[in-house]
Specification:
This protein is mostly beta strands. Helices cover about 0% and strands about 45% of the residues.
């Protein structure tokens, strides 16, 4: 099966969906797992979704939610029940996929949230889903407007890219050591 998101469509609010495609003969059958309502759940999930070891899906929206800066959500496997894990503050949330460590903690970047409104990197601790800011971008040597997924190395360091900043102003590759 294939899983993904649409930034628009689905339901009367036209705020995006999470979907599943199942192979069927020579084609595919689409199953909409969740249609966003543009309320506390957020809207425009432009990121992909990731699975945990129990078959739950995790993803993000770029707008809406309780803080206006997008949401982090879970769809529980089987029945695909929606749970809001965290409402981000700011104006534009994650545009890259979330990443998950071995303990099930979620990591990501926001596009225009953070102290300087130039994006941030964050961690959500599994269980309580406590938010920890790992870095607030400044558009200097650290960059600004991160768009990428965060990737782990074998030592647990995180790597990503930002669209602005750096020596020539054209973006950076950054490392965060949690």
């Amino acid at each position: 099966n294939l899983y993904g998101t649409t930034c628009c469509g689905g339901g009367p609010s036209n705020s995006g969906t999470v979907f599943q495609l199942k192979p069927s003969g020579s084609g595919w059958i689409e199953n909409v797992l969740y249609s966003f309502l543009n309320q506390r759940d957020g809207n425009e999930p432009v990121t992909g979704v990731i699975f945990d070891g129990s078959g739950n899906l995790y993803g993000a929206t770029i707008f809406g939610g309780t803080g206006g800066g997008g949401t982090i959500f879970e769809l529980s496997g089987g029945s695909w029940t929606f749970s809001l894990l965290y409402g981000l503050s700011g104006s534009v949330g994650p545009q890259g996929n979330l990443s998950m460590d071995a303990a099930g903690n979620l990591y990501g970047t926001t596009f225009q949230d953070g102290a300087h409104r130039l994006g941030s990197a964050f961690k959500l601790t599994r269980g309580s889903w406590t938010y920890t800011a790992l870095h607030d971008f400044t558009d200097g040597g650290d960059g600004g407007y991160p768009l990428s997924n965060l990737v782990f190395d074998s030592s647990g360091n995180l790597y990503g890219t930002a669209a602005l900043g750096g020596a020539n102003g054209d973006g950076v590759v950054f490392e965060i050591t949690p």
